[in-house]
Amino acid sequence: MKISTQTETTAQKLGEETAIKYIAQAGFDAADFSMFGMHDNDDMLNRDNFREYVKRLKSIADDCGIYFNQSHAPFPSYRQGEEEYNKLTYDRIIRAMEISSILGVDIMVVHPTHISEKENFDFNVKFFKSLQPYCEKFGVRVALENMWGTRDGKKVPNVCSVASDFIRHLDALDRRYFVGCLDLGHCGLVGEDAAEMIRALGHDRLKALHVHDNDFIDDLHYYPFSGKMDWVSITKALADINYDGVFTLEADGMKKRMPVEFLPKALSYLYDAARQLTSMIESAANKT
Q: pLDDT tens-digit profile of 55-78?
């Protein structure tokens, strides 16, 4: 199984070109291109010459022997009552799809939006259906992600947080263009069992992952094996559904406070943890 990790924190500290090189040197097969910086008007991806810049990043990845399997659009995708923000962000999500296409990305993650329990489904189905023409134009699939909210200082479910709601959203969309990205860490935050979510989504819906660990209290995005996630049950569930996507980590939480000199070793450790997990998936598959 191919292994990938996000560019986010390494790119923030050292730039995207160096991040790609470090990810490759650590042994990863692929990279998940983070586009969170697009909320900054001066971000390279918002400039007129963004295509040339992105093509250079693609060339660097090619030279390093890795590819971009996945990407992440800027978020929040929508804010209630902030029409200027919403128009600008929607346009940037479309640009992010073009960027993903240039990079050769298969799946771009776009966060669904919590409006209210009553309005969530209709709002999000309409929003994601509006992206379908761009999926067709750029040859990129869009993944919805399971989210969480906050109430009285605690994490609570909101949109796509539980299996039934996630499935309802996905099944209302064209499966050729829309898939599920299960954020494993988000499951525990809202009291859901990650392995049960994997089995409920099943092989045909679950095509992308955000792999990280936490304490079931905060969205820490820690390295696997550093929190409370049950990796034995998770890897068995992935084997049971014959998961055929890339094993993509979103575990940059620990790297945020590290000196830049630590990043190569941190990435190597993260790769080793991911390789251990994919070995567990393969071992579980061989026992069935």
A: 999 999 999 999 999 999 999 999
